[in-house]
């Protein structure tokens, strides 16, 4: 999320944002995800690998709210509780424990489990944890992680 100008800022600079309260930020190489207190997720930055999740592969930098894609506005159960970002992919965890991933899938980091899929351009829930409660998510460069309520950890 930028300052809506084309200026490099070398000192902390207030980022103008909606009236909502920001509760978390996740950063990839060239993209940023912002989670607000109401569970809205906003993404901006490079979208060359679909990491912004707007259904397109595009540059230059773009901004997008992904809540309409996962149906968060229609269902409180799909309200986002946590976000994570890898180099070129993004993750969201809803309050009901569903894990959504999108962006670069070339190393399986979105969970596509299909060598023919190298990019997921919209958030997808592959439902690997059906019947289990996911309580946390994390990402590294090309890997995704989930921690279950049992303490078990999965990576892909």
Structural notes for this entry:
- By secondary structure, the chain is mostly beta strands.
- It has one domain: Methylamine Dehydrogenase, Chain H, CATH 2.130.10.
- Strands 1-2-3-4 form a 4-stranded antiparallel sheet, with no helix packed on it.
- A hairpin with a 3-residue loop joins β1 and β2.
- The longest helix is centred in the middle third of the chain and has 4 residues.
- It is globular.
The number of helices is 1
For the sheet with most strands, the description reads: 4 strands, antiparallel
Radius of gyration: 15 Å
Oligomer: single chain
CATH hierarchy: architecture = 7 Propeller
Shape estimate:
globular
What structural class do the secondary elements suggest? mainly beta
Q: What does the average pLDDT come to?
A: 86
- Poorly predicted ranges: none
Question: What's the end-to-end separation, in Å?
Answer: 27 Å
Helicity level = under 10%
Number of strand elements: 11
Number of domains: 1
Q: State the CATH superfamily name.
A: Regulator of chromosome condensation 1/beta-lactamase-inhibitor protein II
Cross-sheet strand order for the largest sheet = 1-2-3-4
């Amino acid at each position: 999320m930028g300052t809506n100008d084309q200026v490099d800022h070398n000192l902390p600079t207030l980022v103008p944002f909606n009236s909502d309260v920001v509760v978390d930020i996740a950063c990839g190489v060239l993209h940023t995800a912002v989670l607000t207190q109401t569970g809205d997720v906003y993404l901006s930055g490079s979208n060359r690998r679909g990491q912004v999740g707007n259904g397109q592969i595009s540059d230059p930098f773009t901004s997008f709210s992904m809540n309409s894609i996962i149906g968060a506005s229609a269902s409180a159960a799909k309200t986002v509780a946590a976000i994570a970002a890898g180099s070129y992919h993004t993750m969201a965890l809803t309050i009901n424990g569903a894990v959504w991933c999108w962006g670069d899938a070339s190393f399986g980091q979105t969970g596509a489990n299909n060598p023919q899929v190298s990019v997921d351009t919209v958030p997808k829930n592959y439902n690997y944890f059906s019947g289990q409660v996911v309580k946390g998510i994390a990402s590294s460069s090309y890997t995704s992680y989930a921690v279950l309520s049992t303490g078990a950890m999965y990576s892909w």
